[in-house]
């Protein structure tokens, strides 16, 4: 009995320590990310469209105000495009997808390589498939072909 309990506790400790070494709780295989992309492609495209629309009105999405001014506006409300954009970001985050760049629709799917390293499967609006991945510290500049995964 003691050995069984001791073994179970060690297994729990191992799993907890294994979980702590990753930034994300949700991870995708390449096939899962590609299937998910078919579901979120339109959301990412809409995200880019909304960001362009907000830029055209002078709205700073990062500071939640108009460029050079205070606000959100006289009514104390955010522009409707901002509300929609926030909703899209929340949907993507809930799915485990990380948004890296709004202007280009750059999104990352957390992935665990066979060596246990957590990396990103990388895609942006305009690309027809997930063809790249990168180590987390390397960012977009470190993109490599998924053939090297």
Write the SSE topology:
Blueprint: H1 2-20, H2 30-57, E1 59-60, E2 65-66, H3 80-94, E3 98-101, E4 106-112, E5 118-124, E6 132-135, E7 144-145
Antiparallel strand pairs: 1-2, 3-4, 4-5, 5-6, 6-7
Helix pairs in contact: 2-3
Question: Your description of this structure?
Answer:
By secondary structure, the chain is an alpha+beta fold. It has one domain. The protein contains three helices and seven strands, in the order H-H-E-E-H-E-E-E-E-E. It has a five-stranded antiparallel sheet. Strands 1-2 form a two-stranded antiparallel sheet. A hairpin with a 4-residue loop joins strand 1 (59-60) and strand 2 (65-66). The chain is elongated. The N and C termini lie far apart (43 Å).
What's this, in brief?
By secondary structure, this protein is of the alpha+beta class. The chain has helices at residues 2-20, 30-57, 80-94, and strands at 59-60, 65-66, 98-101, 106-112, 118-124, 132-135, 144-145. Helices cover 42% and strands 19% of the residues.
Question: Which structural traits does this protein have?
Answer:
149 residues; alpha+beta; five-stranded antiparallel sheet; two-stranded antiparallel sheet; 3 helices; 7 strands
Tally of individual helices: 3
Tell me, rounded to a whole number, the average pLDDT: 84
- First and last CA, distance: 43 Å
Give a quick account of the main beta sheet: strands, pairing sense, barrel closure. Answer: 5 strands, antiparallel
Shape: elongated
Q: Quaternary arrangement of the chains shown?
A: single chain
String of helices and strands:
HHEEHEEEEE
Tally of DSSP β-strands:
7
């Amino acid at each position: 009995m003691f050995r069984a309990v001791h073994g179970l506790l060690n297994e729990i400790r191992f799993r907890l320590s294994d979980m702590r070494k990753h930034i994300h709780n949700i991870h995708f295989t390449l096939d899962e990310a590609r299937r998910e992309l078919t579901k979120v492609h339109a959301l990412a495209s809409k995200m880019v469209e909304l960001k362009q629309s907000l830029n055209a009105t002078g709205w700073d999405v990062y500071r939640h105000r108009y460029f050079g001014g205070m606000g959100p506006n006289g009514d104390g409300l955010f522009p409707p495009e901002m509300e929609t954009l926030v909703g899209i970001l929340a949907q993507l985050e809930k799915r485990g997808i990380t948004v890296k760049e709004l202007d280009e629709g750059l999104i990352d799917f957390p992935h665990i390589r066979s060596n246990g390293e957590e990396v990103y499967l990388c895609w942006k609006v305009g690309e027809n498939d997930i063809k790249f991945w990168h180590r987390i510290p390397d960012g977009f500049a470190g993109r490599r072909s998924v053939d090297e995964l």
